[in-house]
Every structure is written in structure tokens, then in C-alpha cells.
Amino acid sequence: MITLVTRAPTAIADVRHELDDVAIFGVQSSALPTVLICGDPIWEHALGWLVSSTSLEVVGRGHDVHHTPELVERFDPKVVLIETSVVDSADLYKRLKQVHTRRPAIRTIVLCAPDEAAYRDAALAGGATRVVSRENAADLLKAIDFVCALRDDSPNDRPRLTRRELEILRLVARGRTNRQVAQMIWVTDQTVKYHLANVYRKLGVGSRTEAVDWAFRNGLTDRTTAAAAR
């Protein structure tokens, strides 16, 4: 695993944020213009350094996910990169949904901690193109390669699962039966079946095994758990 940066609360507290709320940068013609949303100065510096070695070029920065739609309108990026250490999950979902509704072809990458299921669910439900661990640079680089390979004229094809659908899929991917899922979230077995049918349709899969594979690829479960659930 490649670690981007070691988080140190005392170091973060000592760092002064010397940038304006939005900073404007030049963009190389061969790179994809990108807006970076990050409220933590240490993470912002680390991500900026890492992104500079890729096919992305940061043209604008913001420190609050709430302003993401405005920044997209202002800078007209192809890619939006959001780091979630100081982000509210409900606001993340709302702003991503706004961006993808207005600009279906935009590519969004969201970075969150491995144990932040609420943020991962909010990002996926909001239409994020890729959701990756912010602690693994290799995962981020793969996500960047993926979004760079998408055609400009093709809409973001990320399946739009609701938060309830994501919750059920995560439990199924962890080996729970429909009845166990129903008991855990206080609904009927039939309701679980209904949601799973919608999940299969949106993912374009025909079986529980294929849905579990999708859940593993998108970080809803780990390899061992996914293997046991198939």
C-alpha cells in the first residue's frame, strides 16, 4: 500500500491555510482541467502534488463541498476531485447529484477513509464516477486513469443506487440472507427482494454473485467477505 500522508492532528492544527477560498491556475492543453475540493491543507498539498504527476491539471480549488456546483460552473472542469475529511455526507450527496444532473458527462472522484461507509454510500448515490480510499495513492492513480480514459461525449455511466439500495447491497455482500437483511433494517423480506431487483437492474447484472462482485470492486466489502458471500 502506498500512503499519501500520515495524518497528525497536532501538525494539522499548526498549519495555516494561506490560500484564498478559490485559487485559479493555468492549465496545460493536453491535461484534463480539474477542480479540487479539499478543506484540509495537508491533504490539499498532498493531493495537489500527486495529481500534478498525472493527466489532470488543477484549474480551481475550493475548501467546501457546498460550493462544488458553483465552482464547476465557474471553471468548467472535466473532472472534480473531492476529499471528504471535513465534508458532511448529506451535503456531499446533494452537491454531487446537482453536478451530475447539470453535467452528465463530468467525471467525479471522491476520496474517503476506508471505514467511512456513510461517505462512500453518499458518493455512490450522488453519482460519483469513482470512490477510493484517500490513504492509498495507487487506488487514486487507477481512478484517475479510468476517468481519463472516458470519452468526452459519453455520459457518466455510474449506476445511481439509492442509499437504501447501497445499504442492502453491502449487507448482501457481507453474506447476509434476505431475511437477515430484512430483520436488520426493519423491513419485510419482500421489500428486500424489491430493492435487490432494482439493484440488479441498475447494475446490469443477473445474479446475487454478480452484484457481490460489483460491491467488492466498488469498496462496499473486502475480498474475503465477498468471496464468502458468493
Descriptive account of the structure:
Mean pLDDT is 80; it is low at 1-29. A 5-stranded parallel sheet has the order 2-1-3-4-5, sandwiched between helices. β4, α5 (117-126) and β5 form a beta-alpha-beta unit. Helices cover 49% and strands 12% of the residues. The chain has 2 domains: 9-149, 3-Layer(aba) Sandwich (Rossmann fold); 163-229, Arc Repressor Mutant, subunit A (Orthogonal Bundle). The radius of gyration is 18 Å and the shape is elongated. It has 230 residues and is an alpha/beta fold.
Strands, helices and their partners?
Elements: H1 9-14, E1 32-37, H2 41-51, E2 56-62, H3 68-75, E3 79-83, H4 89-102, E4 107-112, H5 117-126, E5 130-133, H6 137-149, H7 163-173, H8 178-185, H9 189-203, H10 208-217, H11 223-229
Helix pairs in contact: 4-5, 7-9, 7-10, 8-9
